[in-house]
């Protein structure tokens, strides 16, 4: 297979008509004769930007000419070396392996200090050897380097795909050939390209190993990833962390087991509860009035508190085994709140069998000391005596995985090791028997990319970009001054003027006003700076409404129409994240688009002008001004005191009337009925009820509707009726037209 990894030459004489220029051009030509591409530069330009070429080059040839050494005085030599030293340092920060050659005249080599020589793959003496000889030497080293790049599975898959074997196995498109037999198939083939289809094979191909049994190159890749992520066992999963969570749960939880779960967990955990027949006991996170979910207070983890919760729960208190089987928390909430894992392990001791950290948003943390102890597993982390620790990570969310790429990490305890054979039975229960090989390869590559030092550099870069974004937003704010408005980024008041600053700035301290979580334990949590929640005006952290407000839903619709898609939108906040794929262009466009929004808001521009697509779909807003629309929705939010309702509703006492699995059984057996939302109070939900935003389940099958939840659902109905296009979607509600009007229903257990 042919790749484009040119040899990069840096020589200020590359285009000069002198002897040195002609020497380097002869070398370039000789390399080209061997079929290898060469790119020549005459200077580094911006060093950091230049060093990033290392990800697309196969080697560097850095010239060091006689003239640069001037008369040989120390000053001249130092100056010449400084450039090279800086270049090498920048490259090696990310890449320890790419070959770097120095190219110059014989007598200059003695000027090169050891610290530079050590990083080199050779010193090429101009005119001593023939250009052809030197070219072959360079190409050999470059090839050796490129051959070492691909991790085991990706390597084997590329080999297989380029082998042109006739396949009789699934998938039926046979390496893409089936597509070529129809016009629309042709289109599909051209769009995705031959390689994706050639590499789309099934697990009958022996030489690639098996994901489901963890053999061959797949197993080698999983071991490689385990080493990189610093865990004892690692399993790639091709159905997302939704599946990883179910695998972990089914490997250890059985009907009637007590489980301790973050109330604001992902729905896949709630599905796991239903599927395993567990009895859930919930840990309650704090919340602020922006709707941002805060940490579960440290006291909630106290074994005595958990015992009390078990005693208070009508089902858990009658369980045969009172020792919880598993504790699952969301390690990195949507908004970026992290827990100190070592503290949690210490508090719990051996009172729970298995700890599970849902790190869907945190696969990057193991690679930077900024996150020390604030993630589940990593090299050198202490082991528990008896407790197995699991982390499930969505490689595709923050690292370079294809959608659905996920992984399960395990840390054994001192006294109990994971039985991988038994664990795999659960893995099989939730895996397709036809895993997608491109996803496996992306798990493999995403892990290899994080190998030190490259991974650390990537994480550092995303933190730095995130901090630069925050600084840019503050600068805009400062320029507008106190009499004007601007968006704020949720986070600590103290922000280093440059660089990473102090990690302690991001640790959450009791009573600090910015977070709005009140008196919580200092040092137990931290905010991940790469998650940036942008706060729109209108609501303060105490939940009081200002006179003027800009509901975030309008901002995100506006941004969408200007080509910027937001991950999650709340009432007066929306969030963006700085993955390792972040670019300066992306976040700078955010800043400028927000400025456009501000202008359009201040001028009360009509929607037909600034959001034409949206106005076309919802003509009732065509002539409405942006500021007027904001005010109108803001007024409704204020009337209903919706920030407080939402917070109170999530924190309200909710009683289970049956276990989630029993409520699900009612659904399966159709012992449910569809009831209008006005009549819900006291009824048992058969559905998972999840409002978007924030996408956090509100009610779990088997729980009862209370007054505040009913009034929230009524608000949703009224709001959605008044503001089409800005609907709050509540998953679990059924909308039906009765006499031309929208009515909302939910499936509840029959009385
Ligand atoms: C996204 C998410 C998941 C599910 O991950 P997928 O890879 O999308 O299946 C699980 N837990 C949390 C906290 C998530 O945010």
TrEMBL record:
Coiled coil, from the record: none
GO molecular function: arginine decarboxylase activity; pyridoxal phosphate binding
Family: Belongs to the Orn/Lys/Arg decarboxylase class-I family.
Keywords: Decarboxylase, Lyase, Pyridoxal phosphate
Highest taxon above the source species: Bacteria
N6-(pyridoxal phosphate)lysine found at: 397
Keyword Lyase: yes
Listed GO CC annotations: cytosol
Pfam families, per the entry: OKR_DC_1, OKR_DC_1_C, OKR_DC_1_N
Name by which UniProt lists this protein: Lysine decarboxylase
Keyword presence, Nuclease: no
């Amino acid at each position: 297979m042919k790749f484009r990894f040119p040899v990069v030459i840096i020589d200020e004489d590359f285009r000069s008509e002198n002897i040195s220029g002609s020497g380097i051009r002869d070398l370039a030509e000789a390399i080209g004769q061997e079929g290898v591409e060469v790119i020549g530069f005459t200077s580094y330009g911006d060093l950091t930007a230049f060093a990033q070429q290392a990800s697309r080059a196969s080697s560097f040839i850095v010239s060091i000419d006689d003239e640069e050494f001037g008369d040989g005085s120390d000053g001249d030599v130092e100056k010449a070396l400084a450039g090279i030293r800086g270049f090498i340092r920048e490259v090696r920060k990310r890449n320890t392996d790419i070959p770097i050659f120095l190219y110059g005249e014989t007598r200059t080599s003695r000027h090169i200090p050891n610290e530079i020589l050590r990083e080199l793959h050779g010193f090429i003496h101009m005119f001593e050897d023939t250009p052809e000889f030197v070219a072959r030497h360079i190409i050999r080293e470059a090839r050796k380097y490129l051959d070492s790049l691909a991790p085991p599975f990706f390597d084997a898959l590329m080999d297989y795909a380029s082998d042109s074997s006739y396949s009789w196995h699934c998938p039926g498109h046979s390496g893409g050939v089936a597509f070529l037999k129809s016009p629309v198939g042709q289109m599909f083939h051209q769009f995705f390209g031959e390689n994706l289809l050639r590499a789309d094979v099934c697990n009958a191909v022996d030489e690639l190993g098996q994901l489901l049994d963890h053999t061959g190159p797949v197993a080698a890749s999983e071991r490689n990833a385990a080493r990189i992520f610093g865990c004892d066992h690692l399993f790639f999963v091709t159905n997302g962390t939704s599946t990883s969570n179910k695998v972990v749960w089914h490997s250890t939880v059985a009907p009637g087991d007590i489980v301790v779960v973050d109330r604001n967990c992902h729905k896949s955990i709630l599905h796991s509860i239903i599927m395993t027949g567990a009895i859930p006991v919930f840990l309650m996170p704090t919340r602020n009035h922006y709707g941002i979910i805060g940490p579960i207070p440290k006291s909630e983890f106290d074994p005595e508190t958990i015992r009390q919760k078990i005693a208070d729960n009508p089902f858990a208190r009658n369980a045969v085994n009172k020792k919880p089987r598993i504790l699952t928390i969301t390690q990195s909430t949507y908004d970026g709140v992290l827990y100190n894992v070592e503290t949690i392990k210490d508090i719990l001791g051996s009172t729970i069998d298995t700890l599970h950290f849902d790190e869907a948003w945190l696969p990057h943390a193991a690679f930077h000391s900024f996150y020390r102890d604030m993630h589940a597993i990593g090299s050198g982390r202490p082991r528990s005596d008896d407790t197995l620790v699991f982390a499930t990570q969505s490689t595709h969310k923050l690292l370079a995985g294809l959608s659905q790429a996920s992984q399960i990490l395990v840390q054994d305890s001192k006294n109990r090791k994971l039985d991988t054979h038994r664990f795999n039975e659960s893995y099989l229960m939730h895996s397709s028997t036809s895993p997608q090989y491109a996803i496996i390869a992306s798990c493999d590559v995403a892990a290899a990319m994080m190998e030190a030092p490259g991974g650390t550099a990537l994480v550092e870069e995303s933190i730095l970009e995130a901090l630069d974004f925050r600084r840019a937003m503050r600068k805009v704010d400062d320029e507008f001054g106190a009499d004007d408005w601007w968006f704020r980024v949720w986070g600590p008041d103290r922000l280093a003027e440059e660089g990473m600053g102090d990690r302690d700035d991001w640790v959450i301290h009791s009573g600090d006003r910015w977070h709005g979580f009140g008196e919580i334990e200092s040092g137990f949590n931290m905010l991940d700076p790469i998650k940036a929640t942008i706060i729109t005006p209108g609501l303060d952290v105490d939940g009081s409404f200002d006179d003027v407000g800009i509901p975030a839903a309008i901002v995100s619709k506006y941004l969408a129409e200007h080509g910027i898609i937001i991950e999650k939108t709340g009432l007066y906040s929306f969030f963006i994240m700085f993955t390792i794929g972040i670019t300066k262009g992306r976040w700078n466009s955010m800043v400028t688009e927000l400025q456009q929004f501000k202008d359009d808001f201040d001028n009360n521009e009509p929607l037909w002008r600034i959001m034409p697509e949206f106005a076309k779909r919802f003509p009732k807003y065509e002539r409405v001004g942006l500021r007027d629309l904001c005010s109108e929705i803001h007024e409704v939010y204020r009337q209903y005191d919706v920030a407080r309702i939402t917070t109170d509703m999530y924190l309200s006492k909710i009683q289970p009337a049956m276990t989630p699995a029993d409520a699900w059984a009612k659904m399966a057996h159709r012992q449910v009925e569809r009831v209008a939302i006005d009549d819900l109070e006291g009824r048992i939900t058969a559905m998972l009820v999840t409002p978007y935003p924030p996408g956090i389940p509100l009610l779990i099958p088997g729980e009862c509707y209370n007054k505040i939840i009913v009034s929230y659902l009524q608000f949703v109905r009224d709001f959605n009726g008044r503001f089409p296009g800005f609907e709050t979607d509540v998953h679990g509600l059924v909308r039906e037209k009765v006499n031309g009007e929208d009515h909302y229903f939910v499936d509840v257990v029959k009385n």
